[in-house]
Amino acid sequence: MEKTKTFPLRYTVYVLSIAGFIGSLLMELMLGTGYLLPVIFGAFAALGTYDLLQRKHTVSRNYPIMANFRYLLEAAGPEIRQYFIQSDTEERPFSREQRSVVYQRAKNVLDKRPYGSQLDMYNEGFEWMNHSLAPTRLTDSDFRILIGKNCEKPYSASVFNISAMSFGSLSANAILSLNTGARMGRFYHDTGEGSISRYHRQPGGDLVWEIGSGYFGCRHKDGSFNEDMFRESATLEQVKMIEVKLSQGAKPGHGGILPGAKVTPEIAEARGVAVGEDCISPASHSAFSTPVGLLEFIDRLRELSGGKPVGFKLAIGHTWEWFAIVKAMLETDRKPDFIVVDGGEGGTGAAPLEFINRLGTPMTEALLLVHNTLVGTNLRDDIAVGAAGKITSAFNIARTLALGADWCNAARGYMFSLGCIQALNCHTGRCPSGVATQDPRRGNKLDVEHKSQRVYNYHKNTLDALQNLLEASGLRHPSELGPEHVVRRISKTEVNSYMDLFHFLEPGALLEGKTGLTVFDKYWEFARPDTFEPPEFILKLRETKLR
């Protein structure tokens, strides 16, 4: 029996739009009611006709007009979830509570909370600090750490600084504001691998110059390292330290490219490339290819800079590669002045989803590995360690120092202080707050005088909060923080301090082979200072599925 065809209800809006257009047009012709309704109905009718005729979107062909409302809601989904659905404590990637405290401290307004914590303190993973019945009273929150104590020009750094964000990823006014705020607060501003721009130099705040694999600001035309250009900028009084970037938490081992269409005269000037030319950051360095080569490069940079501290930043990946670098230190007696551990939590750099979510070691485990390796080889006293990874509050700083870091860096926290609203449009150039964009119509709306004061306020008020935590804990300086001061809930009925939860090596334990940790027992012996290649047993595993 032949099935009777019925009118598809999904076409209803389209048909009503056509009927409305015809009806309203007739009313205008007969009664002179105006063209507003015909224009509105006509626009919807035209949209429905286009949906039916186009061939790229099946949903639009099946649901003319109505499908566009779905696309609209889908596009606005992140904002809807952020403002109307997510709780104040849900981190996606930063909670409303985390952002609010940054905004309040940046604006220098009350950051206190009433009626107790919104956090469930009995949930697994909840962390806190223990206080003392003999609290201290400190006179200042300007906590500092000496980096490069064996250098001719050591640097006294704040324990909380601006992490690497390049001009090119951030707008000119954002860079100006960050550097001005850093100058006001006497803390450092990492340039990112995009080198030193005119917007870093104009305010005159302390800089850590990051040298990436593209050698921007110190490169020959073929992309290789240029000693003369490096010396010229590295000896500037404003440049306090040099940081060689091996990898970053947002996209470790990836490299990157800034398309030529985005390389403006100002970006070209800072990076030492031609206007309109693709700006390529290779996945690895060309100035060295071995652990020993890295340390020789660091020594050369220290010499060219006139004796300033030189170190490297890395996100931890294959453990044998990190061990190879440490073995090279032991064999050659060449050491970096500092190491910055970048957590796999990602950062401001746009990256593929798999890189952001599933590549690179998270900061806690990465920092523990670096700290333990240096302690276990008796190198820790000579090498300062910084760390970065979703640090926005005084407690974040305290727990990171308790795990073994000497100081902390933050990128997104300082972006919030500039007014970033976490719109997640950093990679599109359509940043609504004018922070992560190269569109002058957006970036120029960011008021430098106002925002630089907010950067200063955020740094100052966060360190004031750290001072309060230290006082309540009976401590006098952040360097006194250790694993005994932070506690984590393991289950509903069990808690452990970091001292009991994590394994901390005794000085020299790794050299004596007394670590009791699988990662050292399995990989340390086979790491080689002359290569980043994996151990032989790992290479063999790559040839078979038989384990």
From TrEMBL:
Matching InterPro entries: Aldolase_TIM, GltB, Glu_synthdom, YerD
Transmembrane segments: 12-29
A Pfam family this chain is assigned to: Glu_synthase
Alphabetized UniProt keyword annotations: Membrane, Transmembrane, Transmembrane helix
Chain ranges of the Glutamate synthase domain: 156-475
Coiled coil: none
Record family assignment: Belongs to the glutamate synthase family.
Annotated protein name in UniProt: FMN-binding glutamate synthase family protein
